[in-house]
Design goal:
The protein has eight helices and seven strands, in the order E-H-H-E-E-H-H-H-H-E-E-H-E-E-H.
Length: 237
Amino acid sequence: MGLTSRTPTEAAPPDPAPGAVAVAGTAGAARARAADGPEGGGDPRPLTGEPLCLDLLNTRWHDRHGHHDLLAGTDGLARWLAGSRAAHRYRDGDLRADAATLAVARQARSALAVVAGRRPPDPPDPAALDAFNRLLEPGRIRRLLTPAGPVERTDVADPARLLGWLAAADYLTLLAGDPGRIRTCADPSCGLYFLDTSRNGSRRWCAGAGTGCGNRAKAARHYARRTRSAPLPHPSA
């Protein structure tokens, strides 16, 4: 299959009933299911719009309602694809929100989570690298000269494996740029990924809607300063 491109999935548990978006947290699941239909908005995640590979990682998250997984079924996959940076491929039919693509998306997410979660100086896990590289096996980029000028075409024989290839290739692109800008939220209870695009590279928090990560840290520091500066009580007579 030849697909025009100018930029370069976890063995899954059984799918829940169709339409499920969040897999844990009763209130959170109800809120997610109440969102708009799978083809249009309604993405219940607190952080969206990141590069494709990081956005895929952020399809799992947790909040005060519990743990959630946007890829719990094909409805959630459709919702994610429609708002992702691969949305044009979804609209054009190159990517499909079917069971085969869902399985690949989960495999890619698991492979990405291991390689992206490695913290130097820990050495790379050969098995993790192998799982990641398998995502790239089914595709290649062909450079061609056409009447319209030079083009690059992504050839992936199996349409269901295109998403895994795109996510892995996107991660390699980020690594080739400034890998230090690939971050996880500084709040240890959060875990969302983002690409730090700030001018001085100082972003620390996910800035996700409703997470309040940075605000909680600021409030804790403020409380600690006030506690340290508070006068000691006079000893009782």
